[in-house]
Amino acid sequence: MNPEQLSTLQVSEAMVELQAKIGYSFDRIDLLVEVLTHSSSLNEKRGSRSHNERLEFLGDAVLDLMISEYLMSRFREADEGSLSQMKARLVSKDILSKLSKHLALGTYLILGRGEELNDGRQKPSLLADTLEALIAAVYLDGGLSPARRLVLNIYREEFSPLSSNGHEVDDKSQLQELCQRRYGLLPIYQLRHTSGPDHHRTFEVEVHLKDERYGTGAGRTKKKAEQQAAKQALARLQESKV
After folding, report:
1. 108 to 100, 104, 127, 152: CA distances (angstroms)
2. pLDDT of residue 86
């Protein structure tokens, strides 16, 4: 929605929907409006409305605290280097943009015409900044506890692949854990084809779940082919969520 389209009714409907999505109701709804107001919109509508850049600044710090706190609590034996490496990935713009897309934050943004025409709703940096602003707004409105709950909730799938040594679990292990948790079953890998000379073989593997093929992979070793198949199956399962 652009500034001219932003009626009181539209704001109300959008606010209700987004609050339900994140599981938090604002006492100060103006904070949520500020979260969704991009600076480009202020040039096209008179008034003193704030935009989300100051909230983004605070949200960056709040998110750092929440992620650091979580990692310290979960990985009690990890050294500072491992913790810093994990945190850097989790607070990266790539991850923030991905999480913002999961919440469809781009659909709620109040943009100026120029930003709208430049596909601003899909810009990774803009989406990442909006999520940081949202975290800050929840913190200002409700304090640390609701902000912590929000972060832990939206990061749940990003946290789960992390292992106790601070590294990501490989795709096969992730797939096995997901299948056991969701279906009580183990994935089955089948070698379908090999090609090439002995010194340069290529293996093709399928992974099946409940008698259905969920992924295929190819590699110079069976292990690499299985990892590729598992990665494909994971993407399908995480997309379907059933």
Report:
1. 11, 8, 11, 22
2. 86
